[in-house]
Amino acid sequence: MKIAILPGDGIGPEIVAEAVKVLQALELGLEMEAAPVGGAAYESHGHPLPESTLALAKAADAILFGAVGDWKYDKLERALRPEQAILGLRKHLGLFANFRPAICYEQLTHASSLKPELVAGLDILIIRELTGDIYFGQPRGRRVAPDGPFAGSDEAFDTMRYSRPEIERIAHVAFQAARKRRGKVTSVDKANVLETFQFWKDVVADVHAQYSDVQLEHMYVDNAAMQLVRAPKAFDVVVTGNMFGDILSDEAAMLTGSIGMLPSASLDARGKGLYEPSHGSAPDIAGKGVANPLATILSAAMMLRHSLARPEAADRVERAVEAVLAAGLRTGDIWSEGTARVGTREMGDAVVAALTGKTIIGR
Ligand code: NAD
After folding, report:
1. How far is CA 308 from CA 3, 21, 31, 273, 300, in A?
2. CA dist 213 to 82, 139, 205, Å?
3. Which listed residue, 124, 139, 150, 301, has the most CB atoms within 10 A of its CB?
4. Catalytic one among 58, 202, 206, 222?
């Protein structure tokens, strides 16, 4: 099994190094090769996604990605900005299904901005369609408005569109994921206003006919945003389009208290995937050795489960993370009174120690 390691910018190299350490400790004989991406690749190759990096990603069975971006690249033309690397990888590799679990660990219940009883035991999965919708729809652009009350003024426009196969494949992914969980899918739309999402709702309902063992509910996106903070535990799997998923998955992430804890996976039709933490490159803390590596380590666990067919190894990594939290170890973002503050490397070492059966020195 070959893994492309793309550390990227900011805290990316620091957190990916810890995840690589954890993968190596599993002794699965994984072959790993690193390549630059994002701002780092712009510096070395003049492009955020060089051909050589894309070729490595295409040839690999899975990709472990850190994060890209830095404010110093904000003035570059859009095509050369670091963030284009992740969009390019999604597009070139056909990564259409984005999995974002939002799990609230028992020890971190108090880190959430919601009341502990609302989030204790939270375990929901947001599945976002990643390659369609208004983010990719054509035509788009700026022009002089040809008609309407503001005819003759400058205007900008985008196109929201989804085809039946695009909706069908993400619906299958959601129903199959629900089967392995609590058997419920909430499909989020805006069918009351948007033609595209009336179509979305109809197609999801059609696909549901093949999954009579899974419960399906439809919910408008405004209500879903509200229910996520009112009663998040009522959800199991949430499936939605690219834009609504972008927003709702960040909202769900914050239910758990820290973005430093949340992994993600972006999968193609055959289960090949790109695995990355849900957070960005955190340039404000880069190079200080304080970033939380757990989201990246948990992303590696998702990789073992979804792309490398090693679910038992994924379980081991997840149990090791729980053990480290239970021992009271915390990076700054999840630290609270009475726990032991550790840096990025110590956190990674502690997960490796837990994996290999050594005692974790915590508090
Ligand atoms: P960010 O997620 O990088 O940081 C937001 C806040 O969370 C910061 O205070 C940061 O210090 C903190 N934080 C993030 N990850 C952390 C971790 N592992 N441990 C501890 N604290 C952590 O978001 P931002 O500041 O809006 O963006 C910074 C850069 O990251 C931008 O250039 C942005 O475009 C990029 N970005 C990249 C990705 C990606 O690579 N997929 C995703 C989001 C943002």
Report:
1. 10, 17, 12, 10, 10
2. 43, 40, 14
3. 301
4. 222
CATH number of the domain that 40 lies in?
Answer: 3.40.718.10
Which of 39, 13, 110, 24 minimizes the C-alpha distance to 300?
24
Cβ–Cβ < 8 Å for 313, 3: no
Give the integer Cα–Cα distance in Å for 142 and 52: 34
pLDDT digits (tens, 9 = 90+) for 83-101: 999 989 998 999 999 999 9
Based on the residue annotation, tell me whether 250 is a catalytic residue of this protein: yes
Does 173 sit in the ligand 1 pocket, CB within 6 Å?
A: no
Pocket test for ligand 1, best of 15, 279, 335, 342 (most atoms within 8 A of CB): 279
Rounded to the nearest angstrom, the distance between the alpha carbon of 247 and the centre of ligand 1 is 15
Q: Identify the burial level of 328 via C-beta atoms within 10 angstroms of its C-beta, where 0-12 means exposed, 13-18 middle and 19 or more buried.
A: middle
Mean pLDDT rounded to a whole number for the chain: 95
| Tens of pLDDT, residues 134-181 | 998 999 999 999 999 999 999 999 999 999 999 999 999 999 999 999
- Does residue 67's CB lie within 6 angstroms of at least one atom of ligand 1? yes
Integer Cα distance of 295 and 331 in angstroms: 12
Predicted confidence (pLDDT) at residue 360 exceeds the cutoff of 70: no
**How far apart, in Å, do the first and last CA atoms of the chain sit?**
38
Pick the last residue of a domain from 211, 233, 267: 267
Residue 336 pLDDT? 85
CA distances from 48 to 37, 95, 191 (A): 5, 18, 37
In the chain, the number of structural domains is 2
Domain that holds residue 197: 97-267
Element (H or E) spanning 188, and its range?
strand 184-189
pLDDT in tens, 116-132: 999 999 999 999 999 99
Residue 122 in contact with residue 253, Cβ under 8 Å?
Answer: no
| Tokens of residue 204, six digits | 């999801």
184, 215 in Cβ contact below 8 A? yes
Which atom in ligand 1 lies closest to the alpha carbon of residue 333? 20
Is residue 222 annotated as a catalytic residue, yes or no? yes
User: Under a CB-based contact definition with an 8 Å cutoff, are residues 166 and 132 in contact?
Assistant: yes
